[in-house]
Every structure is written in C-alpha cells, then in structure tokens.
Specification:
- The complex is a heterodimer of chains A (470) and B (224).
- The termini of chain A are far apart.
- Chain A folds into three domains: 96 residues, no CATH class; 164 residues, Rossmann fold (3-Layer(aba) Sandwich); 167 residues, Rossmann fold (3-Layer(aba) Sandwich).
- In chain A, helix 3 packs parallel to helix 4 and helix 12 packs across helix 13.
- Chain A is α/β, with parallel strands linked by helices.
- Chain A has a seven-stranded parallel β-sheet.
- With 224 residues, chain B is of the alpha/beta class.
- Chain B folds into two domains: 35 residues, no CATH class; 187 residues, no CATH class.
- Chain B contains nine helices and six strands.
- In chain B, the strands form two sheets. Chain B has a four-stranded parallel β-sheet with strand order 1-6-5-2. In chain B, strands 3-4 form a two-stranded antiparallel sheet.
- The relative contact order of chain B is 0.16.
- Classes of the chains: A alpha/beta (470), B alpha/beta (224).
- At the A-B interface, strand 5 of A face loops of B.
- The site of one zinc ion has 8 residues of chain A, from loops.
Chain lengths: 470, 224
C-alpha cells in the first residue's frame, strides 16, 4: 500500500519546489505521490514552449533562436518533437515534457531578529552606499545600481540590506556570473550571517537543492527559479557571460517576485547601463573611494614598436626590462596579463628565465602560468596569495574577483581586443588593494593605442576626480 | 552554419574543387572535427581494435570459446576524451542532433566494410523500456537510420532492473538480456554506438544464430 504524503513531507516538498520551474525528474517524488500532488493542485504543469508566430520559445531559458532548437523522433509518442539545445545541460526541455511549479500553500520564510554577525565597520563612503541599498530594499524599489570602484569593499556594503531583508522574512539571492566568485563569497557570507542557512549553487556544487532563505548562485543556476526572491543582488553585471548572454538576464528577471528589489553591482558599468543612468531610467549610487581612501592607480601606456612579433620570438620589450630593474617597490609581486592561452604558454619559460637572471626570483618554482582550463587554477592563485609564487602569468580569467595585497600589474599586448575598457579598468584595479600598500604600478605595453586603453585611463581619472582626488 | 559542438560559426571555404559542387555543410568546425579520431592503420581483423596483431588477444580468446557467434565487428572511431563528451551529451543528455556529426564517416565506413553484403538486414541493439522512456530515443536506431540496407527491430531487451530482481545465481550466469521477436534467415548486421568488451553484442548474435540466422556481424560507431 502506498501512503499519501504527511504534513511534514508536504511542507518539505513546498520548500523544495516553491519558486522554481522544474522538470519532472528534478522533483523527488514517486509516480504515485507526484500524481497525487498534481491532483491536489500542489504542483502545476506549465508548457515547456511558447509558440510565437512561427518561432518557439523555451520557457525555461527564453531561447528562441532557431539554430539552438533541434528535433528528435520521440519513441514514446512516435512523433517528432522540438527540444531546446541551449539549456540541455540542465535536462532536456522538449515538446513532450512539461515544466512544473509549486501551486500549493506558500511556505513562509523565517523572520530573523538579529541575523548579522559581522563585527566590522564600514567606511563613510561604504556606509552611505549601504544605507541607500538598504532603503531600496525597505521601500521595495524595483532596481538600483551600485557602482563602486574596484577595491571599495562592495560585499560589506550589502550586509545592512541583507540584514533588513532577513528581519522582514524575505528570501534573498546573491548571484554572480562566475563560479569561483560564488565559492569565494560563500564563507564570507556564512560568517556574516552565521545563524542563517546559506546555500551556494554553481556547476559543480554538492548542494543543488536551493531550498535556503539566503542563496548564493551563479547566474546560470537561476534558470531553475521562478518568482522565488524578494531581493535579488546581481554582482558583476558587466562580466562574462552575463552581459553577453540574454538567457541569463531572462532567468534573473523570472527568478524575482513581482514585488521585489534587484540590486546590480559593478565597478565598470557598460554603455547600456550608463545610458540608462543618464536618462534617469536606472537609479544608482556611486562609491568613488576605495575602502582605504587612496585613489585608483592610473595605468601608464608604454608603446613598443613591433611588440607582437617580438613576443612571438619570445623577446620581452626593453622598456619592460628597464622597469624591472628600477622598480621602486621590488618587494611587490608581479602579475602579468596576456591576451591568449597560447601566448601565456609561449612566454612562460622566457619570462621565468628573465626573472631568474635579474635575481628577482631565485628558482623556477616562484613563477607560474594560469588560464581558464587549468586544473590547478585555484591552488596557483592561492600560492600567489601566500607569496609562494612571486610572478603569475595569466589570461583575463584573473581580471576580476581576486584580491592580492601587494602587486604590480603588467599587460603585454594591451591593444588586443580581449582587453576592452572594462577589462583594463578591472585589471588596473588589482593593484593597491591593501592599506599596507595602497599603490601599485600598472603598465600597458602595446604597439598602438586603442580606444579601450584611452577610455580606460580616462574613466579611472574621472572616478578619482569624483572621489575627491585632484 | 554553426558548429554543433562549440557553436562557432563555420565559414565554408570555397576553392576551385568545390566551386561548382558545393560540399555538404559541415556539422563541426575544423577545430572540433580535428579532435575526433578515426581508426586508421593496423586494426584487429575481428573487432577493429587498433593493434599490430592480425587478431587481437581478446578475439583470440573469443575464438577459443565454443560460442564463437560473431563473424566480426567493424568500428570507425576511437573512444577518446572528446568522443566521450559528445556521446555523453548525445546519448545521456538527449541532444539528438549531434548524431549528424557522425553521418558522413559512419555511412562511408559502412560501404567500406559491408558494401558487398547487399542482402544483410540491419538490427539496431535495443534499449530497455525504462531507458527508452528516459531518453526518448535509441541511439542505435538513430545510427541505423543512416545506413542503406533495410533495418528491422527484431530484438527486445529485458529491463536490467527486472533482471536484477532475479536470484543471484541467475545473474552470475549472465542470462541473455535479449529476446527475439521474429527469426531471420538472412545475414544480420547488428548496429550500436560502442563496442567495448563485445559481450552485449555477442548475446544478441548468439540468440540470432540459435534461431537460424546464417551469419552475424556488428557495425559500431566506436571501438572502446
Ligand atoms: Zn531552453
Ligand atoms: Zn566546433
Ligand atoms: Zn579484436
């Protein structure tokens, strides 16, 4: 005999399914209990596609591009079905599958009396922004952009808003495009709200349930949510892949409740956001000062003729060699950016040899190279942080989301198109991150100034000016 | 056209050779295509494994057994890391269209190995009912559909779950997981995506031969 779900099981199910849009296999119920839940109207089926004119739109990821829809002959129905290729990694959405959402009694989230266990203090600039963000949450403003320069301490600025939301029994999501940022944030957020259940969702995360009141997630994981959150915070909205991937903003928009507040965080807003700010369509708060109250390092451009062919021949520019010898702060570690994985591999040995011959490092073990598909990526970043590595050669994967206390930053072939304005501002923002060493050299080696370089330098100067530095 | 794997746009190259006869649009970009590895050079005459021996050790062992039921297997690709990824997305995620990646090579390989067997019947290795329900299609049938000869679904597969409910002894004796729907008195070519140990395919071959089929071969996409 099969026993119907009891009250506790039903409540667990509600927490599990509410605010989501799921495939049948993502709902942990037996065939019997599932049918029962549908009959009792606790779970509702939603069609997986919307037909618009002659195109299909996937209701999970919003994809309506023809080339990312395909067909298969279904052996169950003996018909040919369309399916969505775009979101297939999360299970296939096809014409013969439905999506399911919770339609039973809405579970309530805990009202926390005093959830914040963070003992630090905010600087004046941080406090001002934090108050503005918190008031947006309290007043249920639809959107607010927090534009804080690299190193302003943007995460701490969120604590008052998260606190007040938890006090009101709201559900909160902090989403970011990159999984390594989620991993870095998790212990910090958990520490700041030590009695609140925090779950982190990303591609390889163990916990995939997404049942907590406070969720950290990659923007990709939002594809499973629907009308779930009262407060949505999207970190690094200008970062890849969020800014270039329409399905992610589609997902973020669907994941919020009707009466919710969305906070965007960025250090380098893109043209589309700047335009909305200028036209008063997007309220924003600007944080022009780093937490230690020193200005942002301004990059210096170094023109080198024939740079690309020199690098190809494994020759490093003379002006770079000269800089190495006369650096004012030789104790600073060196972070070198190159545009491609192949150039990183190509320059790894010659650069290491050079540093040894200049007595800047004593062994090969003090230099390393890292890129996106490097399995030891996290360990290498950690040993650079621990100063076991003195020089790290990297692609743009380290342009943001990582903090090292005392580095000089180099870009070789800064004119390459991967170094757009935002990337250069972010890379420059790796320097001077600690109170002990608030400065750092930022050098752009190039063989022809690009608009991106000029605009990046200009915008850094402008931000410093707005921060009260002449 | 965009690459079916990495979605990079494929710009067809035009040269004097294909100016008048445009080639079929490629389904993979050059970079992805180059990561697939076709079996070339010396291979085992019986199972297509890459080896310098005429008949590999495994096949020598099979030949020493009384149940030497499979006349031979032919495969076209090796099972490298990239192929594993494609198979996982195609078969387990259910991205059916990835089948197109194999169309040309799989068809050509067939003509090379079995072109002369004009009266042979193609038999796709079936999935169990539960598996089929999960995936919505059978990858072996999807491959068989590329081939010129008549294809018949003569086999059925007993659910492995149902099988595991049977006694331990029965499982150890490895009961044949297939049943035959209809006998066949023509040569048969079993089709599947991958030949690993050859055990599954030999179960199917044995059943066919016991019921009067004169000769059984197998044609598989990958030699694992
Ligand atoms: Zn989709
Ligand atoms: Zn490709
Ligand atoms: Zn062999």
């Amino acid at each position: 005999m099969v026993v119907p779900l009891n009250r506790q099981e039903l409540m667990d199910l509600a927490k599990n399914v509410t605010g989501k849009l799921l495939l049948r296999q993502e709902i942990p119920l037996s065939a019997f209990h599932f049918t029962q839940a549908v009959e009792q109207k606790f779970i509702r089926a939603v069609p997986s596609f919307t037909k618009k004119h002659f195109t299909l739109q996937c209701n999970r990821c919003g994809n309506n591009e023809k080339r990312l829809m395909a067909q298969y002959p279904c052996s169950i129905c003996n018909k040919t079905h369309s399916y969505c290729r775009k979101c297939i990694a999360m299970g296939r959405v096809s014409e013969c599958t439905m999506l399911y959402e919770w339609s039973g009694p809405v579970p309530e989230w805990k009202i926390h009396a005093d959830p914040c266990t963070w003992k630090g203090t905010l600087t004046e600039a941080q406090q001002k922004a934090a108050d503005r963000i918190a008031s947006a949450v309290v007043n249920k403003e639809k959107e607010l952009l927090s534009w804080a320069v690299c190193g302003a301490g943007k995460t701490e600025m969120l604590f008052p808003a998260i606190t007040i939301a938890l006090k009101q029994g709201k559900r909160i999501c902090l989403a970011t495009p990159r999984a390594d940022v989620v991993r870095e944030l998790q212990p910090r957020i958990q520490q700041a709200f030590s009695d609140v259940t925090v779950q982190a969702l990303y591609g390889g995360s163990k916990d995939k349930k997404g049942t907590a009141q406070l969720i950290l997630a990659t923007t990709h994981q939002l594809l499973r949510f629907k009308q779930a959150f009262d407060v949505m915070i999207i970190d690094e909205i200008d970062a890849f892949p969020f800014h270039a991937e329409p399905s992610l903003s589609f997902a973020a928009e669907r994941a919020i409740k009707l009466d919710s507040t969305t906070i965007y965080l960025t250090a380098t807003p893109r043209k589309q956001q700047l335009k909305r700010i200028r036209n008063n369509l997007l309220p924003h708060i600007f944080v022009p000062r780093r937490f230690h109250s020193y200005p942002l390092p301004v990059p210096q451009m170094k023109q080198v003729s024939q740079l690309k062919s020199q690098l190809k021949k494994k020759e490093l520019p003379p002006s770079f060699l000269k800089w190495l010898l006369i650096r004012k702060h030789p104790q600073r570690q060196i972070l070198v950016f190159v545009p491609t994985v192949s150039l990183a591999d190509h320059l790894s040995v010659p650069l290491t040899d050079l540093l040894i011959s200049y007595d800047i490092i004593t062994s090969k073990q003090q230099a390393s190279t890292v890129h996106a598909s490097d399995g030891d990526r996290e360990e290498k970043v950690q040993s650079f942080r621990d100063r076991d590595l003195f020089m790290l050669l990297t692609t743009t994967i380290l342009e943001r989301g990582v903090t090292f206390p005392s580095v000089d930053v180099i870009i070789l072939d800064a004119g390459h198109h991967v170094f757009d304005q935002a990337a250069i501002v972010q890379i420059a923002g790796r320097a001077g991150r600690s109170t002990d060493d608030p400065f750092g050299d930022v050098l752009l080696f190039h063989d022809g100034k690009t608009e991106a370089m000029v605009e990046a330098v200009e915008s850094i100067r402008k931000m410093n000016k707005r921060g009260g530095f002449a | 056209m965009h690459c079916l794997w990495c979605d990079e746009e494929i710009i067809p190259s035009v040269n004097w050779g294909n100016l008048l006869l445009p080639s079929r649009p490629a389904s993979l970009c050059e970079k992805c295509e180059s990561e697939l590895e076709q079996i070339e050079g010396d291979r085992c005459r019986k199972c297509s494994r890459k080896t310098a021996e005429v008949v590999c050790r495994d096949c020598q062992w099979w030949e020493s057994q009384k149940r030497n039921v499979l006349a031979g297997n032919y495969s076209v690709y090796t099972y490298n890391a990239f192929m594993r990824e494609i198979i996982a997305k195609w078969k387990y995620r259910g991205d059916y269209i990835l089948r197109n990646v194999f169309a040309e090579v799989f068809t050509e390989g067939y003509y090379q190995a079995f072109g002369k067997k004009k009266d042979a019947i193609i038999i796709p290795i079936p999935l169990s009912e539960n598996r089929l329900k999960e995936r919505g299609f059978n990858q072996a049938e999807a491959l068989a559909a590329f081939l010129p000869n008549q294809s018949k679904s003569l086999l059925a597969r007993i659910d492995s779950e149902k099988q595991s409910k049977k006694s331990r002894k029965q499982r150890i004796t490895r009961k044949n997981p297939f049943t035959l729907k209809e006998t066949l008195n023509k040569p048969a070519i079993l089709v599947d995506d991958i030949y690993t140990t050859g055990t599954t395919i030999r179960h199917a071959a044995e059943l066919l031969k016991q019921n009067g089929c004169p000769e059984v071969y197998s044609y598989t996409l990958i030699r694992g």
